[in-house]
Amino acid sequence: MSFIDEAKIMVKGGHGGAGRVAFFRNKKGPSGGNGGPGGNVYVVANRNLTQLDAFISKIKYIGENGGPGGQNQRTGKFGDDLFVNVPVGTTLIDVSSKAEITINEKNPRFLLCKGGIGGRGNSAFKSPTNRIPQHAEQGHEGQERNFKLILRLIANFGLIGLPNAGKSSLLNELTSANVKTANYPFTTLEPNLGVYNGKVIADVPGLIEGASVGRGLGIKFLKHIEKVDMIFHCISVESTDVTTEYNTVINELKKYNPKLVEKKSIIFLTKIDLIDKNEIEKKVKELKKFNKDVLPVSIYDEKSLDRLKKFLISN
Ligand SMILES: Nc1nc2c(ncn2[C@@H]2O[C@H](COP(=O)(O)OP(=O)(O)OP(=O)(O)O)[C@@H](O)[C@H]2O)c(=O)[nH]1
Ligand SMILES: [Mg+2]
Predict the structure, then answer these.
(1) Which residue is closest in CA terms to ligand 1's atom 14?
(2) Which of the listed residues 109, 189, 231, 255 has the most CB atoms within 10 Å of its CB?
(3) 104 is in which domain, residue-wise?
(4) What angle do CA 202, 9, 39 make, to 5 degrees?
(5) What's the pTM?
(6) Which of 187, 269, 276, 301 to mutate to test the pocket of ligand 1 (most atoms within 8 A of CB)?
């Protein structure tokens, strides 16, 4: 199954219960109670969830209706509240107002829709001029809203680059992730996460020129790196023209969201075991025109991995 990071849902508070028309038996006078209020619908963070797959099959979330008013002025049953569980980090966007709320540790619960209030029973209408009212109110509709859900992975660092640049291999080396790597483009089809020294690193599928207009796997996974603190731009030494490769990726990032290229970043010149020192130096020099931080690495060179780990610890 593919990784589900977007969904649309309809949310509605429960309907308020109807007010009751009733009368005291022996005494004269109204005794109909009010209807119970409909249940509210809340969204809550659930740490056990990692994607929005549950919202593919179930798209309507409605609070329980309130019960009708009873005799002897008893209020109807309060409708139960409904809790919609979402992964930590899910953003809900109200489709009509565009209001946004992100559910996370600081903000683990939020009221989405209020239930409707219950209708008043006939006893509520008693007055000096109307001692035995004969009517009651219907309950009120619950609030209804439509939301778009977006899940952005919560990562501190994001690995990006062309397909085959060695992104997943680095994630595997640094963290306990065990992501498939292979010598062909688009090995990674969905985002992966790993943790090094308490920091989360995200590996997203490779970008190619035209990703922003849907080529390759497109740029849809870039939303997962919109929130990272730093971007790790991976460029393989196999590239004969690192300048063009660098610009291709930067242009696609820019087209997706210009803020991405303003983020702190470092270039990882990868697979340095494949060429000699002079050639490495040349490519490092060329890339330093774009970013003063260029780190040559290879998964087969322990020293380079140690340098990389030191860098991660200090950032
Ligand atoms: N020699 C050498 N090969 C490497 C190194 N790092 C990765 N590779 C190889 O390069 C190929 C691509 O590596 P991946 O980690 O799958 O690359 P990726 O950037 O995740 O690729 P996509 O998922 O397709 O975007 C694999 O065959 C790896 O074994 C390295 O440091 N040295
Ligand atoms: Mg990969």
Answers:
(1) 166
(2) 231
(3) 1-151
(4) 120
(5) 0.72
(6) 187
